[in-house]
Amino acid sequence: MSPLVGKWKGTSQYAVPAGELSSSGYSQFLQNGEYNFSGEFTFRNVEKLGPDTAVVSQVAAAGTWRATDDKYSITLADVKTVRTVLRQPGKADVDLDKAAASVPGTSRFFRLEDATPRGTSQEYSVLELTATTLHATGQDLPGIGVDYVAIRVE
């Protein structure tokens, strides 16, 4: 059995040129090769949104995974953006899907699945893997560097 099998609570940092992109949530690597993710993607653009404002998307994803030596890959079969909000300190979250629907000519805000074709894969290089911790690096679909750090929760 691969040491990746289990449920991990982790964060990813993406090196995007237009701002800061991170994710946090739960990744589950099942022994039968299935993969699940549930969590949030947070985008900050200090120039356009201000220092404490962020666009936050709740996301669920499913697919398969496989590991070889010091690498693993995830192939996504389905990605679903559950909700996207504008988060500002001291204010209630603004549901961007509802806000976009109220503007003529728009129907929804950006969704992660719009940029993630089904069946696409991402490969990660494992920097550290112990019984309780995982640290890996890779690139997302557009080739942007990703750093992933997680602790085992199951």
Distance between the termini: 15 Å
Q: Helices and strands, in N-to-C order?
A: EEEHEEEHEEE
The number of domains is 1
CATH fold title: Porin
Low-confidence stretches: none
Count of separate DSSP helical elements? 2
How confident overall, as mean pLDDT? 88
Rg calc: 16 Å
Beta-strand proportion: over 45%
The level-1 CATH class: Mainly Beta
Helix/sheet category = mainly beta
CATH architecture grouping:
Beta Barrel
Sheet having the most strands = 8 strands, antiparallel, barrel
Helix content: under 10%
In total, how many beta strands?
Answer: 9
| Strand line-up in the sheet with most strands | 1-2-3-4-5-7-8-9
Instruction: Characterize the overall form.
Output: globular
Organism: Variovorax paradoxus
Protein name: Lipocalin-like domain-containing protein
Give the helix/strand layout.
Blueprint: E1 6-14, E2 20-29, E3 34-44, H1 46-49, E4 54-68, E5 71-87, E6 94-95, H2 96-101, E7 121-129, E8 133-139, E9 145-152
Antiparallel strand pairs: 1-2, 1-9, 2-3, 3-4, 4-5, 5-6, 5-7, 7-8, 8-9
